[in-house]
Amino acid sequence: MLQRWDQRVREGRAVAACAGAAERDAGGEAGARLSYNAGISACEKGKQWQPALSLLSEMREAKLEPDVISYSTGISACEKSEQWQRALALLSKMWEAKLEPDVIFSYNAGISACEKSEQWQPALSLLSEMWEAKLEPDVISYSAGISACEKGEQWQPALALLSEMREAKLEPDSATTLGSARARKASSGSGRSRC
What's the confidence (pLDDT) of residue 36? Predict the structure, then answer.
């Protein structure tokens, strides 16, 4: 099964590259970008972060600048493969390229990548970065941040995020409620979380 998927990813890269070249030759940069983005998306769905990042590199080599969708899909591929450092590197590259990351897709995938890898400090840094950039975190942003804190046994920041979430008039979902309940339980104990 994995071999078949690897073959599909390779074929997807080849199709994206060929379609991209054909579109550029015909003067269709938007079509070429769309083809590459489709290839990156296929890699993301298959949790294939390496081919996704290769496609992003190929875009740059072909003098075709990745857009918000290109980067965000690459970030999501890294998130699904628990490659939090690579996800954060792509977020930085988005800013360097003067592209504003999307709250729902770019930042949430970055925070989720940190959460899955039990990296609570980078998750909180991303939330701070969002506020500084005047981007409003949503329920998913807060939930992933709270979950990252819970996994890192950091109950105080988890409860602070829950409080901020309520101040922003966002309704916690079931995952947020569970994470905050565990944080409350830990805070009433010895001061250390046993989640």
Answer: 95
CB-facing half-sphere around the CA of 89: CA atoms within 13 A: 9
CA nearest neighbour of 164 among 151, 191, 179, 145: 145
3-state SS assignment for residue 152: coil
Which tokens belong to 80?
Answer: 């699904």
- Give 59's contacts (C-beta < 8 A, 6+ positions apart): 20, 33, 36, 65, 66, 70
User: How confident is the model over 173-191, as pLDDT tens digits?
Assistant: 655 555 555 555 555 554 4
Structure tokens at 152: 């890192």
pTM over the 0.70 mark: yes
Give which of 69, 74, 35, 79 is closest to 56, Cα–Cα: 74
Burial (CB count within 10 angstroms: exposed 0-12, middle 13-18, buried 19+), residue 1: exposed
